[in-house]
Structures are given as structure tokens and as C-alpha cells.
Amino acid sequence: MKISAVIIAFNEEEKIADAVRSVAWADEIILVDSESTDRTREIAAGLGARIIVQKWLGFAKQKQFAADRASGDWIFSLDADERVSPELQREILRLKNLPSAEIADGYRISRLSFYLDRPITHSGWYPDWQLRFYRRDKGKWKDVLIHESVAMEPTAKIGKIRADILHYSVENAAHHHRMIGERYAPLAAEQMFKRGRRTSKLKIMTAGLTAFLQTYLLKAGFLDGLAGFCIARFAAHHAFLKHLLLWELQNKK
Description:
Blueprint: E1 3-9, H1 16-21, E2 28-33, H2 40-46, E3 50-53, H3 59-68, E4 74-79, E5 82-84, H4 86-96, E6 106-115, E7 118-119, E8 130-135, E9 139-141, E10 150-152, E11 158-167, H5 173-194, H6 201-218, H7 225-250
Parallel strand pairs: 1-2, 1-4, 2-3, 6-11
Antiparallel strand pairs: 4-8, 5-11, 6-7, 6-8, 9-10
Helix pairs in contact: 5-7, 6-7
């Protein structure tokens, strides 16, 4: 088993070193950089990563581009704002030493996100299973605009690793607001529109409240304290905005 750790990045000089160091155990580290203007490439190269510059293709296509450039028969995909925990490293290296007959074709890994300086274990954010470790001949990234994931062959055997990828995506409240307004809500609306989904005035008016109640009450966000309330509030904003943007798309003349 030869493992290629692949990372995509753009202007991540503050985070990329920790991401690369967390996969130093891999046989190969590849960073696909979408034309950063900061020191991202320099820092990653200094830590042993092989650098490939590729103009931004979209999340799924960029990750597939990275996987296609790997030389390993196994891919471990990591984002620049993520880290491999010591427990996850040990589990992957344990799998590496097992006979091939005892290993699945791909593994879903739990992801633990941090928000307002605390780990979030409720609010629908955990365990947030992500299929990030897989045989490259058995899986491909789905061609979607947002919430990209690996699609495995129908006959592929998929296992689970109960050790965390650590996720540090949201820097502060202003950053969270920008992420929703500039990335997630517009992409979600575009993807919904392309899939034939349509919204209504009633849905626009109720989507936010529904998302808040689901996140804060049904998904026990209240157990995450103030962070849980903020997550639920931003979930409401995201739901409202994506339906409003979808309404604009479907009514465009």
C-alpha cells in the first residue's frame, strides 16, 4: 500500500504548514495550488510536498485533478484547513500493515470541527463522516458544485475509521458570514437550480426558522453552548439565502 496525501489550497499560508505536517507519514504529499499569491507553495515545498499549480476548476474537479497526479495506489485527501489527528495517523498506519484481504476499498473518517475555540460535538456537525481514504482505482470525486464527496464503485467495500480529521474552517463570525454569502449559499442555489429544484415565497419565509429549529433543537445544538446557538443562527441564514438566490435564478428573464 503506497499512500499519496493530496491537498488543494489557495492562499493558505497561515494553515498549510500544519496540514502538511499532519500527513508527513504518507509516502507522498501533493499540493495542488490554484495560483496562490501568498507563500502557500513555498511553505508546503519546504516541508516536502510536491507542488502542482492548477487554475481553479471547482472543488470536486480540483480534488480529482490532484488524485489523478498521485503515484500511490491509495489516496488520502485533506483540505488545507484540516489536520490528521495522532489517533487517525496510528489507525491508518495500522491498516497499512494489514494483509490486503483484511482491508476495505475505502474508509469513511469522522471529522471534528472547531468553532469559537471549542470542539463541536452536536449541531449536526459530528461525527460528519467523510470518505477521504480510498483506493484510487475504486473511487472518483463526484462532479458537483458543493459538498463534494468520493463515489466508490458499487461493489467496493467501505469501512469506517473512528479517529478524527480535525477541521478548522471558520476563523470568526465575519468569516462565517462571508463563507455563506460568497460561497456556500450561491453554490447551493446554483446546484439546486441545475438539478431542477424550485422554491417558493413560503419556502423563503420559512426555511430559516426550520433550519434553526432543526440544528438547535433536533440536532442538540443547545448542548454546544453559545457556539451551538451561533451555528444554528448561521444555518438559518444559509437556508434563507440559498432559497432567495434560487428564487432569483428561477425568475430570471
